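re: ur question from earlier - yeah i can do the single chain one, its not a big deal. heres the input i used so u can compare w yours
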Amino acid sequence: MFISTSKSNIYIKSSNVNDDIPYFFIHGFTGSSSSWKEIIKLLNKSSYAIDVAGHRKSTFNSIENAYTISDWCSEFYMILNNLSIPKINICGYSMGGRLAIAFASKYPEKISSLILESTSVGIDESEKRSERYYNDKEMAVTIKEDLPSFVNLWEKNVFFVNQKERNPKEWEKQKKIRLSHAPEQLAKALEAFSPSNMPYYERQFQEFSFPISIINGSEDVKFIKLGKDMTIMNNNAKQYIIQDANHNTHLESPDLFIDILNNAIYE
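and the output i got, formated as tokens:
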């Protein structure tokens, strides 16, 4: 289904909808709602997945007009109300995790549980924020000029080492998704959702009163540390480490990822 807002046209896929509190899945940069298809199938619970604006079927209404994290949160809130969903178990991967944290910070009453895969509360240091801003601006130019070349470079990221060997079917599917985006839309998404353009959410994260599950791969050293820091920020947060996995644990180890989804919010 599509839901139109003042600044975007958003695609949402629903599965097994019933009266239970649904899971709502938010993909990472260059992903789509289809990135969660296998997880949603294995989970077999009331679920929704979204194409974030600028990805696949979801589009910004204007490439030129500004689009902020606050815009995304407000539009997602409107989408949930449009679907008559009072509360969600929100699960976000990487960029999607940051968006989940941003939304939970603005509308905590909508959250039953927060599931964060390989993400952070943002960038605190000004120099790192500035560096990330300019890096993402340059990357956006590359996307617009030559999307296939960008995808080839993106897939060489250390985060994705061993993915192809561990789950070749899903790896090939992700490659097709990455190549399917409209370059100008994807470039705008990169700039709009860059952590350099998001607040640092440590204070808000400390105030979350709902269960928080933090999922990391054992090989993703940087984000294991960030995840541990998040458990220190909030006593409601529990970290789960999936062995023999890197940044995208739900692709590399879907069965263990499902075990966490099934058990974490009830502990």
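The mean pLDDT is 95. not sure if urs matches, ping me
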